Amino acid sequence: MSALNTVEPAVVDLLGVLAYAELTAFDRLAEDARLAPTLEGHAALARMAAAEIGHHQRLCDRLRELDVEPARAMAPFVRPLDAFHDSTRASTWLEGLVKAYVGDGLATDFYREVAAFLPEPDRTLVLETLADSGHAQFAVREVRAAIAADRRVGGRLALWARRLVGEALTQSQAVIAERDGLADLLITGTGDLNGIADLLTRLTTAHGERMSALGLAG
Amino acid sequence: MSALNTVEPAVVDLLGVLAYAELTAFDRLAEDARLAPTLEGHAALARMAAAEIGHHQRLCDRLRELDVEPARAMAPFVRPLDAFHDSTRASTWLEGLVKAYVGDGLATDFYREVAAFLPEPDRTLVLETLADSGHAQFAVREVRAAIAADRRVGGRLALWARRLVGEALTQSQAVIAERDGLADLLITGTGDLNGIADLLTRLTTAHGERMSALGLAG
């Protein structure tokens, strides 16, 4: 019983935060789609948004299977995730793409690390909903082309990416500080402080690779 | 050759107008989702939006098969459809639902009538993309509940629905006046003025049934 008691709230928390993250990702991608300079770009971002809502649906279905009302599981994460998006609203098409690629990439890596500590079937479910939906190549191509056309764009977008990461850290610290289950899962899963340091190193390395892929200084 | 020449522009026009209609429907449903009073409502409208983008994708794939760049096929319809949405922007959750149910219902009926005159495989493709995606029941339930709670809501929403229909007529007349292929298809397909009158009667009847389903005076 004790194992169940410590794991279950964290499972519900992780499914809940992910479900709300997918819903807000939908909103934001749908909003940013309208910043697209072409109908193709508009449709491309709209398709990414649609993929997020499919994931949201699967997570909510699983929560209902666990007899948890999805809205209740999402509730603790509404404020921090809304705060993140409100403080990092893209004002240009390229900012939106960087946010989709760099911001979602970092969040996805983090959720994937945490998911590794989950029991099945939730581990597989979460990993599947985090699988790349082909957004990456599109964003990389568009951002690189824009930087090639005007090198000053790269400097501005690198600053923007740094702001995204800063806000993401602020909000994720707030979430972990409030959700004991998630914090326990993270500490138990990683083993010790060295484990957490390793996790942070992996996140930082992958983030640096994404920045390089876009042609941005980290 | 002459049959091909008269039909093909109309096929491209119909696929193009539908593809752009689906893209704007996505935008608008995604925008209206954020007016939802609950996370469930928010997710429900987001799912409807996602269904539209799937249809958009299929229509664009077909246009590419016909060697037509989707953006080119959509271009003539960007202005009238944007004008329609700009002039009928929902300011409340219920207005958004009425627009999704009554406005999209009328448009869908009209496109379905025109699709009946298309050669295969486009007839089937268009009819499939127009198939109801389960939006209807959700909108009906929410609107009826709101009217039951406050009868004045019904009067305001009935006026709103009338405005939607007026704007839709204005914009569709503008489209047909400019697209000879679509006008030809409609006239050839219906046969004569009686045929067009019958078509209008069918549209009006179905519209009235949707208004009744919502509990609104036509």
From TrEMBL, chains A, B:
Q: Cite the InterPro entries for this sequence.
A: Ferritin-like (IPR012347), Ferritin-like_SF (IPR009078), Ferritin_actino (IPR059125)
Residue spans crossing the bilayer:
none
- What domain of life does the native source organism fall in? Bacteria
Q: Can you give the residue ranges of the Ferritin-like domain? A: 9-188
This one is known as tRNA-(MS[2]IO[6]A)-hydroxylase (MiaE)-like
Provide the taxonomic classification: Bacteria, Bacillati, Actinomycetota, Actinomycetes, Geodermatophilales
